[in-house]
Every structure is written in structure tokens, then in C-alpha cells.
Amino acid sequence: MNDLPSIRSFLSNYFPVFIGGIFASIFSLALAIPLFIDSYFRNLPLADSTKWSFLGGMALTLVIVHCNFMIARGRPSWVWPLVMVLGGCFLSVLPAIEYRPNKLIYSLSLLFPLLGLLLLNSKRHREMRSKLVEIRHQRESLIKAMKNTQRKPR
Amino acid sequence: MSTPLPGIGMDNTYSQFMARQRIESQINLPRLFAAIDADPGIVGAGVVYIDAEFNVVTLREFKPICSIKPKRVILHEAQKYIAPAQFAQQVQDNPRQSRLVGEAINTTLSCAGAVIGWVVVLSGSVAIPFSAGASTAVAVLGYAAATASTAQCFASGYRLRNEISNPARNDQLDSEEWYQYTMIALDAVSLVGVGASSLTTLKLVRLNKATTGKSLREVLRGLNRQERAKLTKELLSINDPRLTSKMLKLKQLSGELPKRFSPTQIRHATVTQIRDALGATIGFAGSAISGNVRTLAVGLYEEIDGE
Fold first, then answer.
1. Do A46 and B151 touch (CB under 8 A)?
2. Minimal C-alpha gap between B89 and chain A (Å)
3. pTM, whole model, 2 decimals?
4. Mutual orientation of helices B268-290 and B14-26 as an angle, nearest 10°?
5. Helix (H) or strand (E) holding B47
6. Which residue out of A61, A85, A93 would a mutagenesis test of the B interface target, given it has the greatest number of B Cβ atoms within 10 Å?
């Protein structure tokens, strides 16, 4: 509480793991969703499968963005939807081996969710989340204080 | 008449002479050349036509405008005994390699953009204790930028993945109007968020980029304002303002530019324009003569010396 981190040191400490988590989730979406649709909806025409995989991926990207934003704003419980998305990617891709997918794509789409989960579970990320909660509390108290001073007639 | 290996551009044999006559009557040559010259990367490139009987006909010699090293656009008609699908596969394999690199670069760039967006979000959140109001606004603005640029990062990652395992899907995506509008909207949002200039500039640079195949810095350095305006006009007159999903402004912001984004990589847009120029005539004339639509391949070849 008393050692306010400077922005620069905060970013240099925690930004890599933060952005790493985001990229791991984004890439696992980009890899897993088309694989998912290719494997389990084989009869879909190309136009439809393209459209749905793209739009579905976009929607989940928005979810990921929002979760990360909320984490950055100091609400660590938003990490759970992220975990669910990553776990979902992993589990939905796993049985696709039945359909003999491209080996590179398949292995990467297993690797990225796991990497994402690892990063979310890392000590750094946990530390960052708790720091961000602290900062949120400071912010809230600051805003409250400011409101109080405004209300008081001089 | 009796040269066994006909040199490029010399109508040595009767069949070559006939091929030239045929091609010149079938193709709208001025339009084809205009399409090629609209791309600053390949202005004045030579045009060579190889027909189904392997007659090599030079439609235009190379003029050293775009580069000193000779560049040639080669239009290759499929042999009669190859099925169009097989021919397409054969030809697609080469340019696809460079497109893969292109997509990879694009992914790097859009993700660099996402990094910037997230830096804004995170630093906006951390800076709160000092200036509650202002930095909250920064964080919220950053939210928009981070959303848009992360979405673009996803899109380019998705395209890269497609380019590896299912390239047809990217072509499908490019042909969809909603996709193009989505990408423009995302660009606009991330631009506003990051605080750069208006959408029109973006469009201009985008058009430049799409046709020249140059990186942003090259485009901005190589062309002055008048030239850019002229190029845009030219492009619009050819009526193919093909907007690809490039994150241009973020290249500039991140300062992380690809060193070897070869300008000779013929852009998809230019190929499309060339195809358009050819398509109308060749398709129908060809089908009238031989009973099926002629398959054509377009490629750009540059002489490279081993450095």
C-alpha cells in the first residue's frame, strides 16, 4: 500500500506476463476455432464455415479483451471466464485428432491454451492481480474523497 | 524460323507470330498495361505471355522505372492437357509462399498494435492514484483501442493460420464485404483510441499500401502528397480499391517495421486488377475458340542476383 509502484516499473514487471496471457488466448482462439469447425462441421460450405469461425472468434476475442480489461481495473475474479475460454479451446481441440488435422496447427492449438493457463497461473500474474486490486482500492478511496470535498460547501 | 529455343520477345517462328496476333486481338492490352502501371512497385514491368503451346510472346519490354533489375509479369496459359484445377494448384503454390510471409508480418504488426493498446490500458489503470479522472479516461480510451487492435490481432492470426492449412478460406474472407467493413471499422476505432489522425488519411495510406506493397514508411517517404493524391485517383479510376486488413498506423507508432517487405511481391490487388483486365476478354474469346474457358496464371518474376 505504501510503496506506490511507478508506472514504468509496474509495466516492466508485469506487462510481459499480462500481454503474454492475452496473446496466448488470442492465438489459441485463432487456431482452435477454425480447427473446431473444420473437424466437427465438415459439411458446412466454405463461405459459412469461414463466416462462423471468424465471427465466433471475434466474439470470444471480445470476451477475452473485456476480462483482461477488468483484471487491469483490479477485479481479479474476471480471470475465471478467461480460464474457461482457454480450457474450452483445449478440450474442444483435443478430440479433433480423430480427423487427422494439420500436425502443426493441431499441436499449436493445444500448446497455446496450455501456455495461456500457465501464464494466468504464474506467480507474476497472481502478484499483478493483487497489486491491481490494491490500486483499485486506492482509486476508490481517492474518488470518494474527491466527491466528499466537492459536496462540502465552502 | 528454325531456332530450337526461342528467345524471349522474338517472334522467330510462324506459330509465335500467330500467337502474337491472337493474343493482341484477344486482350485489351492498354488496359492490362494500365493495371500493371498503376502499381508503383511494378511500373514498367515487362509483360510476357506464354500460351498453351509454349509460344513465348513479349507483349512489352521491361522499362527500368520501378527498378534497375528487370521485372516481368508473366501470364501463363494452362496447357490443354492439364485440368484447370491442377494448373491452379501448380501455380498457386509459388505466390502462396510469399503470402504466408506477408500474413506473418501482418500478424506481427497488428499484435504490436495490440501491445500498444494494452500498455495504454494498464498504465491508465496504474496511474489512477495520481490523477483519478484523467487517467480513467485514458484507460477507457485505451479499452477501445485495445479491443480493436486485439480483434485485429485475432483476425490476422486467423488469416495466418488459414494461410498455413486452408488458404482458400482467406480468399473467401477477402471476397466478403462484411469482412472488409469490419476491418475498416476496427482500424478506425483503434486509430481514434490511439489518437492518430482521421479516417481519410488512413484510407489513403491503406490504398497506397494495398497497391504498392510497400511498407508504410516506404510509402510515406517515397511519395509526396501530390503523388499520393494522384495514385489514389488512378486507383479509383481502375475501380478496385481493394482494402486488405493491414494495420498501418500502428507500424508507424511501434516503429517496428519489416526490413525486408519486398516491394516486388506482387500484391493481391494488382493481380486482381490484371485478372480483371484479362478476364473479360480472355474468358469469352477463349471459350469461343476452344470450347472451354482458358485458364491463365499471373505471376511476377524478378531477376535476382545472388548478393
1. no
2. 18
3. 0.57
4. 110
5. strand B46-50
6. A61
B189–chain A nearest CA distance, Å: 14
| CA distance readout (Å), B111 to B146, B150, B156 | 10, 7, 8
Of A27, A132, A139, the CB nearest to B157: A27
Please check whether residue A58 touches B, CB under 8 A: yes
Q: At what angle do helices B84-126 and A7-40 cross, to 10 degrees?
A: 150
Identify which of B122, B152, B131 has the alpha carbon closest to the alpha carbon of residue A71.
Answer: B122
**Main-chain dihedrals φ then ψ at residue B10, nearest 5 degrees:** -115, 120
Contacts of B127 in chain A (CB under 8 A): 7
3-state secondary structure A82-133: HHHHHHHHHHHHHHHHHHCCCHHHHHHHHHHHHHHHHHHHCHHHHHHHHHHH
CB contact under 8 A, B154 and A38: no
pLDDT in tens, chain B (307 residues): 444 444 444 556 777 777 788 777 777 778 778 877 877 777 777 777 777 666 677 778 777 777 666 677 777 665 555 555 555 555 555 555 567 777 777 787 778 778 877 887 787 777 655 555 555 666 666 787 788 888 988 998 998 888 888 888 888 887 777 887 777 777 666 655 444 323 333 343 444 455 445 444 444 344 434 444 444 344 333 333 333 334 333 333 443 333 222 323 334 445 555 555 554 333 332 222 333 334 455 555 554 333 2
Residue B169: other Cβ atoms inside 10 A: 22
Which ipTM score applies to this complex?
0.89
**AA identity, residue B51:** D
Write the CA distances from A129 to A72, A113, B146, B299, integer angstroms. Answer: 8, 20, 19, 53
